[in-house]
Write a structure and sequence with these properties.
8 strands, Rossmann fold, alpha/beta, Dehydroquinate synthase-like, alpha domain, two-stranded antiparallel ribbon, six-stranded parallel β-sheet, about 350 residues, single chain, 15 helices
Length: about 350
């Protein structure tokens, strides 16, 4: 069995100061790669901290705008002289660097500039086609060597990413507890499943306040706790549990919606659509009390609760369900998930939404 390594992390407004203590042990030269906005927000501070630690820097380099094989191929010749990769930005930028580092056998360090997914903590990479539709999962047992979380950079980022990140985070708890239902999990899986409550409880407790604090560009305890939930708790659960427990019907629904041109055209974020997928999943699973609690929370902060919120219609569901069931997300589930089951869950949720909207 392959060994999964668990990363350390530094969190706070001065997180980049720890580059000197952590990174030189892995080599002398770092390629700094990320998104354009991420590099504008944090690139100078990261590069200055690396140079102050006596390191050489290649870049900054734009990752290409999509976590695609094409962009990874574009980046390969640019990192030939690098001992390590500094991945800067959100989920797609970090996944691009992550898969590139894993496949070229380089250590890598993540510098999340938004709290939108757990990508900066996990070993799993998600690869897309250039048009934004899902291509494949890149499976690896190698997570980042260290995560540098500058909370002020995240507080200064657009709050929409934290907003969407809370949806993606909550999914981890509900998906892994449903996917593992009826199993007797091994130690690592059991640890991850037990930890998964930390992906939902802090969000429901502090999420509204954290979002308000992010909008005020203020680092607070509530915002820090939610950032840790999104990046660290969820990432560790993903690293602990087997891949069939780390995903489920909520992500299958998300993957389904990636085939709709309206998803990309309206800039719907990963965690935003996953939040909607949780409501569908809990409806399908008959967890109505829990569904209603999450519905209220999602509605209170504007996360999607119906098809119109994700710019979709019932006529889109054939394409959505075909894509949702084409992947691995529900191959391990307490029951066989069918297209009809997903459609019924979505339409039942539509009826519930209509009833709640007239109250």
């Amino acid at each position: 069995m392959e060994k999964t390594l668990f990363p350390g992390y530094t969190i706070g407004p001065d997180a980049y100061d720890d580059i000197a203590a952590v990174c030189p042990a892995y080599g002398k030269t770092a390629a700094v790669i990320g998104g354009k906005r991420a590099l504008a927000a944090a690139g100078d501070a990261i590069i200055q901290a690396a140079k102050a630690a006596g390191m050489e820097v290649i870049g900054p380099i734009w990752y290409g705008g999509e976590a695609s094989r094409e962009n990874m191929d574009m980046l390969r010749p640019q990192i030939e002289q690098a001992d390590m990769i500094f991945a800067v930005g959100g989920g797609k930028a970090i996944d691009t660097c992550k898969v590139l580092a894993q496949e070229t056998h380089r250590p890598f360090f993540t510098f999340p500039t938004i709290a939108s997914t757990c990508a900066s903590c996990t070993s799993l990479g998600i690869v897309y086609h250039p048009d934004g539709s899902l291509r494949e999962y890149s499976f690896s047992k190698i997570p980042p060597n260290h995560i540098f979380i500058n909370t002020q950079v995240i507080a200064d980022a657009p709050d929409i990413y934290l907003w969407a990140g809370m949806g993606d985070t909550m999914a981890k708890h509900y998906e892994c507890t449903i996917s593992s239902r009826g199993h007797v999990p091994a130690h690592s899986d059991a640890m991850g499943i037990a930890l998964s409550s930390m992906c939902a409880v802090p969000i429901l407790r502090w999420g509204r306040q954290a979002l308000a604090d992010c909008r005020a560009h203020t680092v607070t305890r509530e915002l820090t706790e939610v950032i840790l939930g999104i990046i660290i708790s969820t990432g560790l659960v993903s690293n602990f549990v087997q891949v069939d427990y780390t995903t489920g019907l909520a992500h299958a629904v998300y993957n389904g919606f990636t085939v709709l041109p309206s998803t990309e055209a309206n800039h719907h974020l990963h965690g935003e659509v996953v939040a909607y997928g949780i409501l569908v999943m809990l409806t399908v699973d008959g967890q109505f009390e829990e569904r209603d609690k999450l519905y209220d929370f999602s509605r209170s902060i504007g996360l999607p609760t119906c098809l119109a919120d994700v710019h979709a219609t019932p006529e889109d569901l054939a394409a959505v369900t075909a894509k949702a069931l084409a992947g691995i997300d529900v191959r391990v589930f307490p029951y066989t998930v069918t297209a009809e089951m997903i459609v019924k869950g979505i339409m039942d949720l539509e009826e519930y939404h209509k009833a709640r909207s007239v109250q």
